[in-house]
Specification:
The protein is about 95% helix and about 0% strand. The chain is mainly α and about 170 residues long. It has one domain.
Length: about 170
């Protein structure tokens, strides 16, 4: 056996192996590494775009949140204003109603006092007329008969009873 054959370099085999290595490196580079780099670049670009979109969405969400909080605050302020206006209006209406009720009560009281005064005058006039007619009646009775002291007392008692009944 030749030991020398195993350790020696054959130039044609060496050149063929080097060419084979370059061809393999070229093919791996062209068909494997280049597409992998393109896929990695596309994924990197998509990830960057998604992050940018997420940042924009977050900023829009923050802006919407701020607008929502502003609108909510304005709505609360407006609701408080409406409530306070309604309270003021209710107080004014109640004051007006109370004032009108007091005026009406005063008017009714004045009318009642006037009616009472008129009724009192009418009653006094009726009593005067009745007293006048009784006096005339007593006078006619006295003229018809002579009055002694006992008859005089009876006539006065009768007059007082008639006045008490007419009231």
């Amino acid at each position: 056996m030749q030991t020398q054959d195993l350790v020696t370099i054959v130039p044609w085999t060496f050149i063929a192996q080097i060419c084979n290595l370059f061809i393999q490196v070229f093919l791996i580079k062209k068909f494997l590494i280049k597409p992998i780099r393109e896929v990695i670049a596309k994924r990197h670009q998509l990830a960057t775009e998604e992050l940018d979109k997420a940042r924009v969405s977050e900023q829009e969400a923050q802006a919407l949140k701020a607008e929502y909080e502003k609108n909510l605050s304005e709505a609360r302020d407006k609701a408080n204003e409406i409530i306070s206006t309604a309270n003021r209006t209710a107080i004014q209406k109640s004051d007006e109603i109370i004032a009108n009720a007091n005026r009406e009560a005063l008017a009714i009281r004045n009318k009642a006092e006037n009616d009472i005064a008129l009724e009192r005058k009418a009653a006094v006039n009726d009593i005067k007329d009745e007293i006048g007619s009784m006096a005339v009646d007593i006078a006619t009775r006295l003229i018809e008969r002579e009055v002694n002291e006992e008859d005089h007392r009876k006539l006065i008692d009768e007059f007082i009873e008639n006045v008490g009944e007419s009231k």
